[in-house]
C-alpha cells in the first residue's frame, strides 16, 4: 500500500512539473511574441484559452507514466538512466542525445502521419489543427488519444537506450523548446539556421508552418530526414499573412491556399489525405 501511494505521489508530482514547465516556457515565448510582433495574437484569446486547457490535460497524460518511471528509477533501479559519467564513454553522452531525438522524431513522424488519415484526423488530430493560426500555447494542445501516442516515447526509450540523467534533461529541454517555437507563428531562429545548409535537415517554425497551412507533408518534429526520404517534405512555409514579416516558402510563394495567419474551411480539414 505504501508503494502504491508513493507511485501515485510521484505521478502527481510529475504532472505538476510538466504542467508548470509548459506554462513557463509557452508563457515566456508568448510574451516574447507580444514584444517582437505586437498584434500577432490579437483576437485569439478564446483560442489560447482552449489551447491551454487541452495542453494541461496533455500534461497530465504525459506526467503520469513519467512520474511512475521516475519513482522506479530512483527506488527500484528501473530504466537504463545512469548518473555516473564513468558508466559510459564520454563520446556516448552526445550520441545518446542524438539517438533519443532521432528515435522520438521517427515515432512522431509516423504517428503524426497516421493522425492525418481522415478517420483519425476527425477523431483526434483536428483538436491540434483547430489552432489557426497556432500560437506559442499550442505545442501540447492535443486530444487525449494523440497525447497518449506522444506520452509513451521517452518512457519506453529509457528502458531501451542508456542515457545520462543530464543528457536526458537536454532531450526534454529540446523537446519542450522545439515544440513551442515550431508553433509560434514566426521564426525565432536566425536566418543562417533555417535558410542555410542546417535548415535542409532540421525543423524550425518555417518548416512546421507549412504543415499547419497545407495540412499535408512536413510531418517531422526535429529533423527533415523522414519527410525527405518519404517524399512528404513540402519545403518552408510563409508567415506573410500573419504580418510577422517572416520567410516565404522555398518556392518564393505562399505556403498554401491560406497561410496560418488566415482561416481554412472545415471541409478541407475533414477530407484531406496524408
What does this structure look like?
By secondary structure, this protein is an all-alpha fold. It has eleven helices and two strands. α2 runs parallel beside α5 and α3 packs parallel to α7. The longest helix has 35 residues. The C terminus is likely disordered.
Mean pLDDT: 88
Our count of helices gives 11
End-to-end Cα distance, whole Å, is 47 Å
- The order of strands across the largest sheet is 1-2
> What's the gyration radius in Å?
19 Å
Q: Point out poorly predicted stretches.
A: 248-274
Q: Level of helix content? A: 55-70%
What is the β-strand count?
Answer: 2
Beta-strand residue fraction: under 5%
Shape: globular
Along the chain, the helix and strand elements come as: HHEHHHHEHHHHH
Protein structure class: mainly alpha
Instruction: Characterize the largest beta sheet: strand count, sense, and whether it forms a barrel.
Output: 2 strands, parallel
Supply database-style keywords.
mainly alpha, two-stranded parallel ribbon, 59% helix, 1% strand, disordered C terminus
Reconstruct the topology from this structure:
Elements: H1 2-36, H2 45-76, E1 81-82, H3 92-115, H4 118-129, H5 144-151, H6 153-160, E2 163-164, H7 165-181, H8 191-194, H9 205-214, H10 225-230, H11 266-271
Parallel strand pairs: 1-2
Helix pairs in contact: 1-2, 1-7, 2-5, 3-7
